[in-house]
Amino acid sequence: MVLGLTKQETVKFQQVVYLLAKKVHYLLGKKVKYLLTKKVHYLLGKKFQYLLAKKVQYLLGKKVQYLLAKKVQ
């Protein structure tokens, strides 16, 4: 017996505790998946920003080289 409960009440109590534990485990799993997804999106965004900045820098460099070459001629 748990907490002075009858055998039937104890079984019911254990089932409720089990279901609660299962629900908490499920919700924690959801939260972890959500946070991981959020982190991946964030990192992909960072990578995308980095690649855009790199591309812009490259194109600006090309433009500057072109203008310098034109100026020299």
Q: What does the oligomeric state look like here?
A: single chain
**What are the secondary-structure elements, in order, as H or E?**
H
The helix content is over 70%
Largest sheet: none
Straight-line distance between termini: 97 Å
In percent, how much strand structure appears in the residues? under 5%
Number of helices: 1
> Could you give the count of β-strands?
0
Low-confidence stretches: none
Secondary-structure content class: mainly alpha
Tell me what the structure shows.
The protein has 73 residues and is mainly α. The protein contains 1 helix and no strands. The radius of gyration is 31 Å and the shape is rod-shaped. The mean pLDDT is 89.
Helices and strands, with pairings:
Blueprint lengths: L6 H66 L1
